[in-house]
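Z., the sequence and structure:
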Amino acid sequence: MSKPVKKIKPVISTRLAFLIMFTLFYWGFHFVFHRTNLQLSQVVFDLVAGVFTGAVIHVVIAKAFGPLLFGRGFCGWVCWNASVFDILPVRRPKKKLPEKYYVLKYVTLALALGIPLLLIVLGFNFQGPGAQFKWLVIENALIYAIGLVLAFVLGDRRAFCKYLCPAGALMTVASPKSVLKVEKNHLKCNKCRKCEEVCPMDVPVLSYITANQRVSHPECILCAECVKHCPKNCLTVGIGCKSNTTPEFGRSY
């Protein structure tokens, strides 16, 4: 007798659908068809050349000022790298590294900005479509390779996002002040820690909830896994300051 097929939770399937859909859009339309690089490195190449292109617009909206509205929602729902990491068949128990290792992604951010500057000084030009696409493939191949290794070594699909992602480092500057956040609704929390067990970014959700605060941790990617898996249904995703009239969206996914 065959085993019943395990259904994917609605919040997971919806989020993965968004991740895959936008990944196909980025790689199909922007990267392959238009051969446009949207990474941070291309912003450096463009700004030094005095060009305002799609890379600049993308980074400004999605990774600089956008986090003031939706935090690191880009990481949870739209990132083309995360779409690969989130479907990895990782089986081993997760090994959590101390939070001090999160600082490594700021080092990566410095490299992501510094290496393009060095290449410009050395006379390299990455403005043409062919050159942009070549740099894009090299950069993303490196990201995927490192992300895969970290995922399987640490048993953590989001290890690269937590410890090495330069875009994530940039977004942590504004994301704690975002309008959209996970928060507690009127129901009572029983402190079961399920929210923290399912969080892919190891955010200490319970500490915020028990203090009656909105989750403003810089690593929160608004994936809503904590909201979906809360056995008491006491978490929600709200807009604005915490109040009795804060709209609740957590159970609509």
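The chain has a mean pLDDT of 88. The chain has two domains: 10-171, 179-252.

Let me know what you think.
H.
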